Amino acid sequence: MLTITETSTLRGGEWLLQSPAGDAVFTPERMTEEHRLIAQTAQEFVDNEVLPALDRLEQKDWALARDLVKRAGSLGLLGVDVPEAYGGVGLDKVSSLVVSERMARSASFGATWGASANLTVIPIYLFGTEAQKQKYLPKLLTGEIIGGYGLSEPGSGSDALGARTRATRQADGSFILNGEKMWITNGGFADLFVVFAKVDGEQFTAFLVERAFGVKNGKEEHKMGLHGSSTTALIFQDVKVPAENVLGEIGKGHKVAFNVLNFARFKLGAACAGGAYAAIGEAAKYAATRRQFGQPIASFGAIKHKIGEMVVRAYAIESLLYRTAGLVDARIAATPHEANDGSAALAAFEEYAVEASIAKVAGSEALDYILDENIQIHGGNGFVKDYPAERHYRDARVNRIFEGTNEINRLLIPGMLVRRALKGDLALIPAAKALQDELLGPPSMPSSDDALLADERRAIDAFKKTVVMVLGVAMQTYGQKLTDEQEVLMHIADIAMDAYSAESAALRAIAVSDTKSQRAPLHVDAARVFVNDAAMRIETSARQALAAMVDGDTLRTMLAAARRLLKVTPINTTVRRRRIADETVARGSYPFA
Ligand SMILES: Cc1cc2nc3c(=O)[nH]c(=O)nc-3n(C[C@H](O)[C@H](O)[C@H](O)COP(=O)(O)OP(=O)(O)OC[C@H]3O[C@@H](n4cnc5c(N)ncnc54)[C@H](O)[C@@H]3O)c2cc1C
Question: Is 403 one of the catalytic residues?
């Protein structure tokens, strides 16, 4: 088991109410040799074995896909999260993160790999009986069998609990499954599926269903992207599933589904980051060699702005992912558990479910922005298949749709914060009351502080207070009916995402500067640009949310309070983006790798 030095003990969502020291967060720069080794293994596998095979995978050569899954298994890339006792390699969540980042570059194969290594292996490891784990995990982890995850149905995607697939209990304790699942990754060739069905039409339950039990799949879907991964319907017509293949408890399928999603969202965020670094490298190389008006397009300010902004967004995502992995690992390490028992990891991902949703939404949206700009930098060449930019763009679009759409995840972010507050796990309500008093009192003059990024840290403090203020007003205004006010919830999610991203970026830049690294000034540039722009986005979201909730004098008072909080003096982002872009183009790669 790898260990990392994570000193922070913040609980889920608690970053909203506390300001950790710069050295209290895990950053990519603090990776151990073991983390780097597993990252290198994944990277070399993708570069040397998957990318050269991509065309054949896109022609739906599933025998090749199976071989590559086996090869990933032989390298330990299928069981990063699983203890050796079941055939895994039992590494920490930072390792899990670096593997997901690297596998993302394998395009469609990343989906094939993830549906088995994450969506099938993880539920069995977390919820399986000892017999189920012994029976299925070793084979899944060598790639001898391949997994798939059957949750969505034609009539129920986001509303997963509305599934209609039925499991009828038989006298001998077995179940007969009837129904249809939709858009199932690896549907065309997987051997084992985690399938959700309602026992006797009522109790939502997870099952382990082997293809050999009689599962049929529909035709391959014609998709916008990910052409090298299999996506089909699954058809269950009187499929008999033995009693011992219930996964978890009858009627508790939601626990399996939602907890697996907490893991999966975090890993999807990591995959998005991996795609982002790669695209930045492509954009930088292209901009250095493509000449127009007698000079490389990289010399134009408009292109520097794009490359600079692509890097800034990737930096923020990378920072929040490693910070979150550090929190999860610290929590697991602090929770007493047996070596082979996944309960501590399960509890840790439940604890940081808000952060996992942030990683998924912020990661997938940063990636789509970056891939869109990558096409723009490639001009006409971005629109044709001779260059990979158009494929990345198509492949990535689904990231905002699966693992819970970004709308569903945005609703979850404030929803889970409120739930934690009401359960007493997060002191949000006293913080909102204290903030109200502070804002109604006389303005306090900010103390002068010449510490690195002091202005940014003050701004981030204000971002967090803005979340507390707007969420506090929303809870007061709507009470139990807050869930009906989706537009307000979306704004709050946006503010919270920017606050977490901005703080993660700033804390990382401070941590790097403390080490006197030569690259520290570039880290500081990236963090400062992100914080500067986040301030403007947050002000817009806060104004919109407040105006939706209150009016007249109350609105005026609150807007004045928001303005007071968010009085952030703009910095010269142009000069900083240019520095970042120049360094990126000079290296021909994401400069923080
Ligand atoms: C390539 C691919 C691979 C996939 N792989 C798998 C897999 O392996 N296993 C699996 O089980 N599923 C898989 N899926 C399915 C995927 O998880 C669903 O498509 C996704 O959950 C969204 O469900 P839906 O398509 O029914 O959209 P809908 O739920 O119909 O949503 C449509 C729109 O309405 C919005 N919406 C829905 N409900 C609400 C609400 N309450 N409030 C606000 N807005 C709402 C959504 O955000 C979205 O914008 C895959 C999908 C694709 C495209």
Answer: yes
